[in-house]
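Weekly structure sync, notes
Attendees: PL (lead), two postdocs, one rotation student
Agenda item 3: pending single-chain targets
PL asked that the sequence for the first pending target be pasted directly into the notes so everyone works from the same version. It is reproduced below exactly as submitted, 224 residues in total.
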Amino acid sequence: MPCSCLSRSTQKRVVRCLNYSLVLLLILAAAGGILALILAFAPVHQIEVTVEDARLNTFSLAAPNDSSSSSLFFSYNIAAAVAVRNPNWAMTIQHTEPLVASVVFHGRRLHDAAVVAGAGSKHRPRETRLHRIMAARERVSAAILLGDAAAEEFRKENATGVFDLEVLFSGEIKYLGFAGVFADKKDKLGFTCPLSLQLAPPGDEVVVFREVGCRPDKRERIYY
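Predicted structure, written out during the meeting:
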């Protein structure tokens, strides 16, 4: 009951103010609930993968020191910085399987798949993480690693000075929203990142690289 020490007009103003405040709170609560529902049930966007930087330090096909052998040896050293971004405004993404990367030349995987993000790791909404990938081997049998077709392609590209490679990604994720919404929704991931690289000069000289967007691809294309 309004205090009797206040005049009737003042009491009416206080009651009216309280009513307005209550209505405003109800409107804000309703708006917040609607916003939460919109964010929870908004379209889910797949992660985005881009190659921010890459450097080809070694990519060579050479004869052995022993001239009596006709075998060829292949050496390579490739480094890449890859950004993985969660574009969703409200959804956290969790990796249910490791996100792995492979470097491929003319359909031949050059090294064992490297784990970029482990199972259980999460990307918060709008979060971008940078991962560094390194693939390097020296004097590996070209017949085993490349095969005839890839070795021939190497000779063609070596003449131009530009080598076409791919970084392939594979994994599985699930989406976590409000109150566990979409917790059981899982997506298989596959991305292909095409790279055209020249051999970097010796030393620490900076090589200009233009960011490359990776396209979604079938998971079956990933080489294990």
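Discussion points:
- The radius of gyration is 28 Å.
- DSSP finds three helices and eleven strands in the chain.
Action: rotation student to compare against the earlier draft before next sync.
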